[in-house]
Amino acid sequence: MESEVRNYELTYVIPGSFTDNEAAQVKTEIDVLLKKHKAEVVSTEDWGRRPLAYTIAREGKKHTEGLYTHLVLRMSADHASPLDRDMFLSSKVIRHLLLVVESVETASEAK
Predict the structure, then answer these.
(1) pTM of the model
(2) Which of 10, 11, 39, 82 could form an SS bridge with 71, CB 3.0 to 4.6 Å?
(3) Is the pLDDT of residue 40 over 80?
């Protein structure tokens, strides 16, 4: 039996040193993870390349800037924890944050 379907926000950061092709490849890998955990993508926003608030050391490299992506998702609560773990284990994601949101404002409602 599946648990309640909820809305989530997922924001992740990949190294700013990645080329456009490498960033696209990571986004494809994230899409595969989302399909694996039966998450429906409601909206996607690329926030672009930004400096990090502090240096992040990951896999022997020090990162000072990152490429930010923000997603709004719908998925079963049972799949949230495994998705969070898989994002943590991804070697190409230097930081991520998965949050439950009460309501999702669509672009048409914002106007």
Answers:
(1) 0.86
(2) 10
(3) yes
